[in-house]
Design goal:
Structural class: alpha+beta
Number of strands: 43
CATH topology of the domain at 24-42 and 487-743: Rossmann fold
Radius of gyration: 29 Å
CATH class of the domain at 24-42 and 487-743: Alpha Beta
Shape: globular
Length: 754
């Protein structure tokens, strides 16, 4: 035998563990584990999801607590630092079963949104789509009303796109209840409620430029703001539902769906003196090329009206004022950016009553912070928050104490995405950290202003819930600490929080790594990235969960699964976010690739010679883009319901990041225009009834790939709306990765029982 070979082989063995390619991955047993992992891990964590609710303005709260015996509802008193069972669960279960004729288990009451009366004698709750009331003395249950339906995409009454019909609206009664304002023949009228006399206030409305039925009375009922509307031609998209329930023949639908570059309605406010029946005209020149006018607000005396002007292109956003006596318009706050203003994600405004001040959010110093304006002059009085961190939201404003409670991230050491809560004065002093623990915090504040429930966790740390003082954040009493012993006994591991430097060599990029339950470090695992790079937020999970849906399922098939927030996503600096400007195709890929290479350097069992990627919606666009623009790294992609060309998707989302007018940058980021670049294995999935992204976006990509002579797989799911394909689509995604990354033939499902 060759001596050089023998020495080299011995050196290799002595160097450390031998990493062998994974064997027996993607087997039927792996599929069984993948499909059952969520079910197997469910219920393995105790004292986890407490869902607290304060009892009116008292010091008490009610919360859920899951113990080995089942689910309890606990009543805690923050003042007395005591807790007890909130009610007799057996009696409530019996009473609820009696009125609903359902089987109701006392150890697992399926009720939610509890509201306990201050005197603790009754409570309301939701069960099976209805709101019920329980008398806690007699334990009698009565059905009160239907529960409010949560918003869902689609449905005739819940189509979320399109512009409102401004001619439709009820007569609007004046604050003094003496008059109503209404639209007739495209003009503004008023009707006196006592004698029913009617008066026409405007005379310049007509077809093509008419008054909206939405009017705004001044508080003293002396004036009305009504706006003229120049409507826009509607962009309609059509659907053919090939296999509708209940009939053999297809159904046809047509929906309004504005897209980038389409005309949008224009609104021009006008002031009317009701007593004098005078029309006070307002100059239109300062609010041209609108994307929208919103937040019309009269001052308390009815002397002026403010509104927000979002100029088309989202690079100019202003708070404007109209003098009600003269109609003169002026700029109060002038927000401008050479890239985009994130009006859809970071906009915040609070008008301070009495002082005329405005609290305003802005990224003008490179981070999203709060500023205090003199609302009368437009002068910046002071910056309220500042530093290399950002405000994530405002909880409440106390005008009397001149203080603000807000959420922020990036101020504390560690993960810059973890949310913490703070208090600060209007003048920027007395910043108080209310949630000192290292974790992602969620707070529920009491109505009496004394306490809040603070629940915090990380993906690698179970949740803890305590009551804290709103004065200084000190802990008042502990409510629950999650118990994960049963979960750990299954072989479950915490996801790993992993960081690596991004493309600039300086910025930390954060993500998580998920391993299978039967993880074996001596094997080689292909890596699959779950991608969603929409610039409207950040997406890597930050709070504890036993499973992260399809990421855990895929891992069980023999993969390392990762999720990463690259540059171009939100909730970091403005510079970090601006990478997405007119550049959706970037999707943070230079950062993501470096991150995965760093992970593979640390963990030899991660095989970055075999890399898959998948995503839905914006993630569908991103995952296909990985094969088009980075085929040197990504090998296999599964893309569901992708917006593959930003000109084909909804107007607000795409113009927010890609700008207006529609230009060459849209073409450069288009998967359709770049379909000829495809390398690797691609599976496209979309639903024929997608009610979020125009389904033609995917079929146009299919057309372009066919014309380019490319091989790919395509699954059109009849009747499916916006999703990753349902149970069948999830299985097809598993199969695609197993076959093309593991090199294993998936089970023959046609031979299996359903």
């Amino acid at each position: 035998m060759n001596r050089t070979f023998i020495c080299g082989f011995l050196s290799f063995l002595l160097a450390g563990t031998v990493i062998l390619p994974g064997r027996a991955q993607g087997t039927e047993k792996d599929y069984e584990r993948a499909n059952s992992v969520g079910r197997e891990l469910s219920g393995k964590v105790l004292h986890n999801d407490i869902r607290p609710a304060w009892v009116g303005k008292t010091d008490m709260l009610i919360f859920e607590d899951r113990s080995p015996a089942g689910k309890d509802f606990i009543l805690a008193d923050a003042l007395k630092k005591t807790s007890k069972k909130a009610f007799d669960a057996v009696k409530l279960a019996d009473a609820l079963a009696k009125i609903t004729h359902d089987t109701v288990r006392a150890t697992d009451l399926p009720i939610r949104n509890l509201v306990m009366a201050d005197d603790l004698k009754s409570m309301t709750f939701e069960y099976s789509g209805a709101v019920y009331k329980c008398d806690l003395k007699k334990y009698t249950v009565t059905r009160e009303r239907e529960a409010r339906r949560p918003f869902t995409w689609g449905g005739d009454d819940r189509w979320p796109w399109g512009f409102r019909n401004e001619l439709i609206g009820r007569p609007d009664t004046s604050p003094d209840k003496n008059m109503t304002a209404f639209i007739r023949d495209y003009n503004l009228w008023i009707r006196m409620l006592k004698d029913k006399k009617e008066y026409q206030l405007s005379h310049d409305g007509g077809i093509g430029k008419y008054y909206s039925a939405s009017v705004y009375w001044s508080p003293d009922s002396k004036k009305i703001m009504a706006y003229l509307v120049i409507p826009a031609e509607k962009h309609m998209i059509s659907y053919v539902e090939s296999s509708p329930e209940g009939q053999l023949q297809p159904k046809y639908y047509s929906r309004e769906y504005p897209k980038p570059g389409d005309a949008v309605p224009q609104f021009f406010p006008q002031i009317f003196d009701v007593a004098g029946k005078n029309h006070i005209t307002v100059d239109e020149s300062m609010i041209l090329n609108q994307y929208s006018l919103e937040e019309f607000r009269w001052d308390s005396l009815g002397n002026s009206l403010t509104f927000e002007y979002n100029k088309r292109g989202h690079q100019v956003y202003r708070v404007m004022r109209i003098d009600a006596a003269t109609g003169k318009m002026s700029v109060i706050i002038d927000e401008q950016s050479p890239t985009f203003i994130d009006y859809s994600g970071k906009r915040y405004r609070y008008d301070v009553k009495g002082t005329g001040e405005i609290i305003w959010a802005s990224e003008r110093d490179g981070w999203n912070h709060l500023w205090l304006y003199d609302g009368n002059t437009g002068r910046v009085k002071n910056q309220i928050t500042k530093g290399e961190w950002l405000v994530r939201g405002v909880v409440s404003v106390d005008e009397k104490e001149r203080s603000i409670i807000f959420m922020a991230s990036g101020r504390e050491k560690g993960d810059p995405y973890l949310i913490h809560y703070y208090r600060i004065g209007f003048d920027g002093t007395e910043l108080t950290h209310l949630t000192p623990a290292d974790g992602n915090h969620e707070a529920v504040f009491s109505d009496n202003g004394k306490y809040f429930v603070d629940t915090w966790s990380r993906v690698d740390m179970p949740p803890v819930s305590v009551v804290r003082s709103m004065a200084d954040g000190s802990e008042v009493m502990r409510l629950a600490e999650a118990d994960v012993k049963d979960l750990m006994a299954t072989g479950w591991q915490y996801p790993e929080v992993f960081t690596a430097k991004g493309r600039d060599g300086v910025t930390d990029i954060w993500g998580i790594i998920i391993r299978p339950l039967n993880f074996d470090p001596s094997r080689k695992y292909p890596v699959i990235e779950n991608i969603y790079a929409g610039p409207h937020s950040s997406f890597v999970p930050k709070s504890f969960r036993p499973t992260f849906s399809n990421m855990n399922s895929l891992a069980e098939l023999g993969f390392i699964v990762v999720q990463i927030d690259g540059m171009g996503t939100s909730n970091r600096s403005k510079k970090f976010h601006d990478v997405a400007w007119k550049n959706i195709k970037d999707a943070g890929f230079p950062d993501r690739i470096l991150w995965m290479k760093a992970a593979a350097d640390k963990y030899p069992y991660i095989d970055i010679e075999r890399v898959g990627i998948y995503g839905t919606s914006a993630g569908g666009q991103n995952s296909t883009g990985a094969l088009l623009f980075h085929p040197e790294f990504y090998d296999v992609a599964v893309s569901s319901c992708g917006c593959h060309d930003n000109r084909m998707d909804k107007i607000w989302w795409n113009e927010q990041w890609m700008g207006w007018p529609v230009d060459q940058s849209y073409i450069e980021s288009s998967n359709v225009e770049n379909a000829h670049l495809l390398k690797g294995k691609l599976l496209l999935i979309n639903g024929e009834m997608d009610n979020n992204v125009d389904p033609a976006s995917t079929t146009q990509l299919v057309n372009a790939l066919i014309k380019a002579g490319k091989d790919f797989d395509y699954l059109l799911v009849p009747g499916m709306q916006h999703s990753s394909g349902g149970v069948y689509g999830e299985r097809r995604r598993m199969d695609f990765f197993v076959e093309n990354l593991l090199g294993v033939k998936p089970p023959d499902w046609n031979k299996k029982e359903k």
